[in-house]
């Protein structure tokens, strides 16, 4: 999704379209964490008035993807402490996710989960670029979301979706400085194997090990970024 000039389609409200366009730009890294958001510029790019842009930005504030400081709006940035707390929430929710997926995952869902792992493995064997990093981030999100859907618990999926949006921004912050934080294919494979064998105890351990290790990598990376910014 690009913010290049274009006319928005009318069947959906302009506010909803602006919201979706801006949300996609934020979660794809087109609008990076910390970037200032100016209504007039965004309205010009999306070829709409400032009113739907203003309303869309308010929605994004409520979703914690946009923050306001002294009247200035910008894409949200998260601290190492924010990341630690977000991972604690993920640990609680995804324990339930993999446990229920062991009981409820269909053969089709298991195949989709495996396909996502295989796509990530192929990407990791190519020359790293900014594009492949964002593709890996998307595959990581889809892997965890597919497991949540396999749990057959729509409320769990809804809660994780809200959490995943914030996690994507956290991962973008760390990925831009160190793409290696996305090297999780072996951990994903272990989670999948446990679900495939319907071993809920092993699946819970695998997801805990994965998220705890990921938390440590991401928190460390954010701490280093914060230290570097403080030193400037």
TrEMBL record:
<keyword id="KW-0804">Transcription</keyword>
<dbReference type="InterPro" id="IPR008920">
    <property type="entry name" value="TF_FadR/GntR_C"/>
</dbReference>
<dbReference type="InterPro" id="IPR036388">
    <property type="entry name" value="WH-like_DNA-bd_sf"/>
</dbReference>
<keyword id="KW-0238">DNA-binding</keyword>
<protein>
    <submittedName>
        <fullName>Transcriptional regulator</fullName>
    </submittedName>
</protein>
<dbReference type="InterPro" id="IPR000524">
    <property type="entry name" value="Tscrpt_reg_HTH_GntR"/>
</dbReference>
<dbReference type="InterPro" id="IPR036390">
    <property type="entry name" value="WH_DNA-bd_sf"/>
</dbReference>
<feature type="domain" description="HTH gntR-type">
    <location>
        <begin position="12"/>
        <end position="82"/>
    </location>
</feature>
<dbReference type="GO" id="GO:0003677">
    <property type="term" value="F:DNA binding"/>
</dbReference>
<dbReference type="GO" id="GO:0003700">
    <property type="term" value="F:DNA-binding transcription factor activity"/>
</dbReference>
<dbReference type="InterPro" id="IPR011711">
    <property type="entry name" value="GntR_C"/>
</dbReference>
<dbReference type="Pfam" id="PF00392">
    <property type="entry name" value="GntR"/>
</dbReference>
<dbReference type="Pfam" id="PF07729">
    <property type="entry name" value="FCD"/>
</dbReference>
<keyword id="KW-0805">Transcription regulation</keyword>
